Amino acid sequence: MTSRDGFQWTPETGLTQGVPSLGVISPQTNIKDTGSDGPWDVIVIGGGYCGLTATRDLTVAGFKTLLLEARDRIGGRSWSSNIDGYPYEMGGTWVHWHQSHVWREITRYKMHNALSPSFNFSRGVNHFQLRTNPSTSTYMTHEAEDELLRSAVEKFTNVDGNHGRTILPFPHDMFYVPEFRKYDEMSYAQRIEQIQDELSPNERAALESFILLCSCGKLENSSFGEFLHWWAMSGYTYQGCMDCLITYKFTGGQSTFARKFWEEAVGTGKLEYVFGCPVRSVVDDESGNGVRVTARDGREFVAKRVVCTIPLNVLSTIQFSPALSKERISAMQAGHVNMCAKVHAEVDNKDMRSWTGITYPFNKLCYAIGDGTTPAGNTHLVCFGTDANHLQPEEDVQETLKAVGELAPGQFGVKRLVFHNWVKDEFAKGAWFFSRPGLVSECLEGLRERHGGVVFANSDWALGWRSFIDGAIEEGTRAARVLLEELGPKKEVKARL
Amino acid sequence: MTSRDGFQWTPETGLTQGVPSLGVISPQTNIKDTGSDGPWDVIVIGGGYCGLTATRDLTVAGFKTLLLEARDRIGGRSWSSNIDGYPYEMGGTWVHWHQSHVWREITRYKMHNALSPSFNFSRGVNHFQLRTNPSTSTYMTHEAEDELLRSAVEKFTNVDGNHGRTILPFPHDMFYVPEFRKYDEMSYAQRIEQIQDELSPNERAALESFILLCSCGKLENSSFGEFLHWWAMSGYTYQGCMDCLITYKFTGGQSTFARKFWEEAVGTGKLEYVFGCPVRSVVDDESGNGVRVTARDGREFVAKRVVCTIPLNVLSTIQFSPALSKERISAMQAGHVNMCAKVHAEVDNKDMRSWTGITYPFNKLCYAIGDGTTPAGNTHLVCFGTDANHLQPEEDVQETLKAVGELAPGQFGVKRLVFHNWVKDEFAKGAWFFSRPGLVSECLEGLRERHGGVVFANSDWALGWRSFIDGAIEEGTRAARVLLEELGPKKEVKARL
């Protein structure tokens, strides 16, 4: 099936919109006659991992659940396109056994042996290529690359002489040490200013590229504390970051994983769904008659409760009644800063499989790695650009091709581009969450608060791997648990204990 | 409530059996009239974390479930005794956000801020004390302690020049690199022989004490591959091991966590249970009439399926019909090697809070740390002994007190001992699973196999954090998922997709 999402370019076809994905659901609904199947126990808005998890948990527990999704597919900001049987990850990709929620599901769905490493350092172009200006390249072994980045990132994170362990001992409880707030309020740029004299020019370029790869914002609008939070979640080491952030992916693509949740939920017989159904408003009139969700096309759906999994940057497109809290509105208005451009390039040099590169700051793609070998035997490179030097990949393909070529000039020809422009996606308005300075300390609690019959759940305000697939599952799990408690069987706990 | 399990000694009371715990369930059953409430969908045998998880998942999904537990309490090999409001961990203790299954539950039960670090390096006796013979002590800073152990453990684990990452890239898929088998078949002693020339005497003593702390067996009967598996799960670093194995514990004790599973399961109204009910036999006559579980007292219970969570070393005490597979019998006969003696000592030197020590090989307790401050202001030390120099702590309390005293001679008086002798516990016959050389490669698959209407589930044969609370939850999750699929609503997946 082909999704409306995503773009592909080849020299033969030029740019085309829409790419094939296992995540497309067909038919798009199992409701025969609008409204006739309601009311529901719960309406889940959004079929990303958060909504899928909530839907799965609720339907398994026997609740009559309706899933409304604006797109034609499951997975939200994490989905894969299968082209000639080869998966390109359009959004969230990597997973690790140190990510508790996603790994629990991977084990539960017996997919622990369905993973492959992105890196493969056994081919010809087996080095790291650092380009800090258009005219030269510095080549290093991957060991030297690790050492360069380890050294730089450790200087960046070592605010307490204990690699962040003292200031952030419990990353799920970020302000356990209240002084952590000051780092949350600090930008990348401010932190770099503190350590600039300790950084060699190469360290500084590699560091900036790496931390911008994480935020995909600008140095001035990315929260240093949010990076420290990723760092702590990863075990306070650069190697831990590499392991958790960019090493292991699903052999068959993310959408093979998302389908497991989907199939389990459908299998309960408790799920109804409508895809291609963006929501216009959510009204809880507090009459006790339930929450009314109105689609853009005018259809109305009513349930006892709603789980709203719409991302932070999109929340303001929905009308809520009663009005949202001040904290939530303030966070929505601020928004997160991630304006990632993620571009896959199939290139005709097989040996680039073992290549990694940083091309910063002059290029519109700043960090890339050899990520696989395509069925045609070409190398698949995955390349990232950030808001610091922004690229809209479909607007001018020649510019995109130029940015890809700048990563390793003269080394390859491009056979194919595949990407999803998250920035112009009306249902995402950016990629994974990354906090502005101060946003988390000011708004995290408010974003997690209950709003009448509506539970807001999204990886954007998860406690642990916020921004990650893991955080989405954390939040979907939380939402379902809250509603299990509220709507579940009357408790006889006291009598029985 | 006071459990029959555990021992306490004070100078005033001497040795007494049975200690208070929040894990004790009262009344011990909610079945009024034997057998009248059956048949059940599922009988879960064993109320440790594995059985609790399976029970919770099954009851939440609406299955009529019966939990049979031999003891008077939940938690199995992980439970805490609250004495004057202070928790002593009698078995499994430490958790970390890199342990996926347990952390998923900690977040789901909102206990991410109910943890405390065991270590507190802010008090007077702030050093590491290494004693390799009865007459001398070597004192080091904790930084030097970490460096000593890091260096030694890295030499031990670095079999591939890549800190184990090459030989064990996917720890949940242990034999992904088939050559890993040779390390699984290798004993600690054999591996030490390979590196003995690289180890200083202090490194060797610290290493042996540390790896024996993990296996609680002997150098000759502990699998080196199993330690490598822990190492890979921990992120292939000594610091990762320390973080995951011995750093974060529940502020209120393990039993506060176990109760969350219990209360959720009871709250569904689908749970019946009988404590103090050891099982004699499990018979699946393959007639399609279900599986019959007979208790030692002769009571019979019948269900469509059984989840048997009895530990490896106890399995042979139950009669199974049809007979168990050759692999399972062979594994049962071999057994695991963990003969841990874990002894808590309340000592009258407040400043010992920041002390750590290794006293090896001459002492019957070889590894200990300051683990807390008791309500009386004394230091709580947690001390471990292994099968390499075995202690049965209740047999001769004077010998136990002597072993505690040898850790730091002249530094304290003992006000209280608290412990559970897992070795003599008929429902455990050892502490957490630790493999003999070759046991995992030969038997892991066989231990995980289905046996007619019976699903065997236990942390002893988990894929990930085998031996840990995490592995117990992994296995309970797996068992419930298998039965959800088998007993769940008829699937309409094909028609609906």
Automatic annotation (TrEMBL), chains A, B:
Record Pfam families: Amino_oxidase
Enzyme category, top tier: oxidoreductase
Annotated keywords: FAD, Flavoprotein, Oxidoreductase
EC number(s) given by UniProt: 1.4.3.-
Binding positions for substrate per the UniProt entry: 384
MF annotations from Gene Ontology: monoamine oxidase activity
Binding site for FAD: 69-70, 279
Cofactor(s) named in the record: FAD
Domain Amine oxidase, residue spans: 50-484
Keyword Flavoprotein: yes
Compositionally biased region (Polar residues): 1-19
Entry similarity comment: Belongs to the flavin monoamine oxidase family.
Name this protein carries in UniProt: Amine oxidase
Organism: Aspergillus brasiliensis (strain CBS 101740 / IMI 381727 / IBT 21946)
